[in-house]
Amino acid sequence: MASTQKQKKAAPARAKVRPAGFPTRQQVMDFITESDTPAGKREIAKAFGLKGQEKIALKALLKDMADEGLLDIGPARAFHKMGGVPKVTVLRIVDVDDTTLIATPERWEAEGQPAPRIRVVERGKRGALTIGDRILARTEEAGKGWLAHPMKKLAKATEMLLGVVEEMADGKLWLRPVDKRIRKDTPISDIGTAKKGDLVLAEPTARPPRISARVTDILGDPFAPRSFSLIAIHKHGIPHVFPEAVEEEAVIASKLPLHEDKREDLRHLPIVAIDPVDARDHDDAVWAAPDEDPANEGGFKAIVAIADVSYYVRPGSALDREARKRGNSVYFPDLVVPMLPHQLSSDMCSLRAGQDRAAMACHLVIDAKGNVKSFRFSRAIIRVAAVLAYENAQAAIDGDQDNELLEPALKPLWACWALLRKAREKRDPLALDLPERRVVLDEWGKIVSVAVRERLDAHMLIEDYMIAANVAAAKALEAKKAPVMYRVHETPGRDKLVALKEYLATFDIDFALGQVIRPSTFNQLIKKVGESEEKEQIMTQILRSQTQAYYAPQNMGHFGLALGSYAHFTSPIRRYADLLVHRALVGAYDLELPAPKDRAIPDRSSLSQEDYENMGRVGEMISGHERRAMEAERETIDRYVAAFLSAHVGEVVKARITGVQNFGFFATVEGLGGDGLVPVSTLGAEHFFFDEAGKALQGVESGDRYTVGQRLELRLAEADPINGALRFELPDNPAPRGSPLKRDRTRPKIHRGRPTNIRHIGSSRGKHKKR
Predict the structure, then answer these.
(1) Which comes out higher in pLDDT, residue 645 or 90?
(2) Between helices 318-326 and 244-254, what is the axis angle to 10°?
(3) Which pLDDT does position 70 carry in this prediction?
(4) Is the backbone of residue 26 left (phi > 0), alpha (psi -120 to 50) or beta?
(5) Nearest Cα to Cα of residue 159 among 108, 111, 216
(6) Helix, strand, coil proportions of the chain in percent (round to 5)?
(7) Contact 31, 47 (CB under 8 A)
(8) What are the pLDDT digits (tens) for 565-588?
């Protein structure tokens, strides 16, 4: 046995001196529970002064305690109390409860016990953490639960890998990533029951540089219908399965009475919904008629009716928590991940033709100059006369298609819009008419075409009615000094404006930095360009100079729309921000309806105190969810485009350069989209200068110049649907036609870093102009 003296020498690190002799179970438990650092066998032995055979006995004791359910073993073979959490440990954020982030231990091996849900206490700037993040945290028990105090945000190196199983000629299996930014395949150490060609989730094992992958989930055939969307859903961690409790609450909520006697009855009006032909839900409808008030001669009355989602999705409900967690619906070419269950999003909250629906109505009075003179909001009951596709509404107005609603509904809408357009032109918002891609699929999920969406007057009409209603909502809440979840778009920052000035100088276009920057400033630039070949690339560069819009309870204005107050009100089915604005209007204007008789549904539909207190935090969260959705949607379209082009590998296509770097330039197929790389190593043996300001590569000997916006013909060398990547070559380079899915691993790799035939000249063009 160890001597008392030895124990005293080992004890100074402990606040309490341990007694002589081999420790009891309780003493070991106390030491592990109180330890501020991970307590493994070595630390326990050192604390109690154990040596030799005593360490062997300790190992047996710890095993017995683990078998008895007293202890659990965590990372680095550190012990902790079974059902407890180490004082300092690695957590992964997995959920949001109202505005509180919820985390679980990254490793949890307590057999028969679920991993604890730990509330994360954020300090300082909030919103820095989100679902999927890993943190090193200090934990503590609080009541019947646990709290975590973040110490450090950790790298996402241990995130799940998403890819396709590939078998090489030597029989070895590799995981091919679906993310085109990841250029390295990972060897598979444990394939489980997956097969070659399966789309799988895997966890990284071992340590760099010898990381391998262990397959944990099989997602199926990567080319099956909807797989491209599933790739994005899993990659970005988008919640896509509703918990059973949420689905059940949606059914109960959908049966709430409309309270027709307490709502404004608008069923006699020919209100119409005008939406995309492929719209899955309809949350807005419009109506207009000449104003009969002599004081407003030449003016109009208009109604923008929006689905009354706040009546069904109430603060504190399971539906509300799930909607906040999602933040918005995500729209893919083949499916929608809705913010709300289908019972609401595509049924009771969808404004279907000929059916009574609950609505929040924005009543507008518009004068002959297009200015909104007054507005009011009411909870109403409506019956949409028709749901029209943009193309059909436009065809009716143009006289190309008969429609019984032309006279009573469509013509007044267009006449009123002519006034709204006057006000818009006077305001002169940012006018960047850039093409939007639309993927068309057949009933089996196969690609029929990829085309640019046509921009019609019908699109702009609905857009202007929605903007008018959104402005009215913000101003109505400001009038009552009620909280507003603003849609904020700030003025571009100086750094981006300097970069834009340098870029425009390459086209001999002056851009003064000292002027007051307004949307009209950029519109004047676009007018100067006219219909020249460079117009689209300059508009793209102007778009890149803009700040990203976000949600916040502080009003910073909307630069792009040239508006001082702006809030999203018109899409509460698919945006959580709009739902908060609806709730605020209900409270500010006393629009509450009788409480539901079913106690499963909260009494009130107005903004709760918790909503009010957490507006800033929620704004940060839903802004992040919006960016996540945009990235997932864009990547999915890129995959569909690559799949569509995979049948054309080896062909010469018309392309446009979209970006230039020192290692090559990116180009997109005209009319389709999807960026692909032309490596500088394939441009020939001569040296190239990289002109950073002009965003161009220029050959030293030939003078050949490749610059952003330039149109040229390229050969499609590779189209990879799995990660949405394309690769191009110049047409005069020999390139064999081949399948994009059979990659040749013997093909020479493109070296990373600066290519040997590149000279970087920074922001100066003049240095090599005459070379």
Answers:
(1) 645
(2) 120
(3) 59
(4) alpha
(5) 216
(6) 30, 25, 45
(7) yes
(8) 999 999 999 999 999 999 999 999
Residue 523 and residue 428 in contact, taking contact as beta carbons nearer than 8 Å: yes
Map tokens 């690769």 to a residue: 727
Instruction: Please say whether the beta carbons of 600 and 252 come within 8 A.
Output: yes
The separation between CA 450 and the C-alpha centre of its own chain, rounded to angstroms, equals 22
Residues sharing a CB contact under 8 Å with residue 453, sequence separation 6 or more, in sequence order: 435, 436, 437, 438
Angle of helix 390-397 relative to helix 457-479, nearest 10 degrees, comes to: 110
Bridge partner residues of 89 (DSSP): 137
Q: How far is CA 238 from the centre of its chain?
A: 8
φ and ψ at 66, to 5 degrees? Answer: -70, -40
Residue 202, number of CB atoms within 10 A of its CB:
24
398-416 tens-digit pLDDT: 999 999 999 999 999 999 9
User: Exposed, middle or buried: residue 196 (CB in 10 Å: 0-12, 13-18, 19+)?
Assistant: exposed
Find where tokens 């009788």 sit: 594
125 Cβ partners below 8 Å, 6+ apart?
Answer: none
C-beta of residue 497 within 8 angstroms of C-beta of residue 517: yes
HEC string of 308-326 equals CHHHHCCCCCHHHHHHHHH
Question: What is the separation of C-alpha 209 from the centre of its chain, rounded to a whole number of angstroms?
Answer: 31
Supply the pTM of this predicted model.
0.74
Task: Please give the pLDDT value at position 733.
Answer: 64
Q: What is the pLDDT of residue 14?
A: 38
Amino acid letter, 205: T
Cis-peptide into 209, omega within 30 deg: yes
Residues 635, 636, 641, 646, CA torsion sign: positive
Whether the per-residue pLDDT at 324 is higher than 90: the answer is yes
E-state strands within 550-622:
550-552
Where is pLDDT greater, at 128 or 627? 627
For residue 494, report the phi and psi dihedrals to the nearest 5 degrees: -60, -40
Give the chain's mean pLDDT.
83
Cβ neighbour number for residue 209 with a 10 Å cutoff? 5
CA–CA separation, 513 and 495 (whole Å): 11
CA 323 to chain CA centroid, Å, is 14
In degrees and rounded to multiples of 5, residue 496 shows phi and psi of -70, -35
